[in-house]
Task: structure prediction
Amino acid sequence: MISVAEAIQIVRQQTALLPSEQVELPRALGRVLAEVVVADSDLPPFDRSQMDGYAVRAHDAQYAPVRLRIAGESAAGRGWHQQLEEGQAVRIMTGAPVPAGADSVQQVELTHELKDGTVVELVESVEPGKSIVKRGAEIKAGEVVSSVGTTITPATMAVLAAFGYANVKVFRRPRVGVLATGTELVAVDQKPGQDQIRDSNNYSISAYAQLTGAVVERLPLTGDETSLLQRQIAEAAERCDVIVTSGGVSMGVYDVTKSALNELEAEILFERVALRPGKPTVFARLPNGALVFGLPGNPVSVSVTFNLFARTALLAMQGAAEPALKRETALLARAVKGTADRESYLPAQLTINDDGQVVAFPLKWGGSSDFVAFAVATALLIVPAGAKTVAAGSLVNVVRLPG
Result:
């Protein structure tokens, strides 16, 4: 049995980067950059006014109130491109170019126009540089804006557009096959019979995989037949980079996943993790290079193990800078119990207290099959192996759940 940290390290070591592809900018949201984004111009590309007012020479306004002749107007997209002379002012709008010769902008609230708009009176003096963003103050042409491994967010889209990236090089989205084992499972649109339940794991796994940007194929239920599972995995491996199964990984008579993988001559990279819930998690590589994650059957175990291991692989394949869930600290609101030989990842909700601290509230749940209680969890609370009890008020590690 290996630690969670060791398992994540193995996943990262065994996960190869997918090739890159070009996509049109509107299709790039959520993808991971496979190229360095460089500014093709200064930003702003000219000295820019931060507010509506009057562009002036600060020297002319040092003994305010003072009256200046209005020489013109500079608006966004329509600047006044002449030289501002002594005793002159230019009416200017937010975002407009500051004309040559001007070194400050006085806000419109501190001015009065006179004589039919030909003269402006500045009520107060103005310091040089006031309300002006200098050319290149935000970034200069040739500087790096975003690096390889950056996930493209709506804010990143604005940056890419501003610097002319109509097409963007990104890593290919992984193709994922998802299937569940167990004769007790029936499809979601069927009424369960005696001793049966509806399949839910295929849907949670598919949703989590889609959040990583993966292209997901949900495969038919396989029951507990080793030969059928073996065939499904082999066929999926021909078109998928990763296959995620749920159920059939413990030590029981009907736990068939490892048998199917052995028949397929897969390399088992690990099969037990010191983790609660989710100890019997399998990670393997098929002869053609496709990765297989055999997750436990209980729904909460599925969510925990997918987000710790499979999610890491799917993001690493796309070159994400930080593929693994990121740990942070929180104040524990209520005491929790741990396990002697395993690290516990318990469902919790995170809030912010009046002091600005992150607080973790452990959820009351009935174990790894209690997916109804788990549905409101926003994070996993980490209890170290060997910790019998962690007292309320302690600082603990947590990871936020995606979604």
Q: What stands out?
A: The chain has four domains: 4-19+172-317, 27-43+143-171, 48-133, 327-400. DSSP finds seven helices and 28 strands in the chain. The CA atoms of residues 72 and 90 lie 5 Å apart.
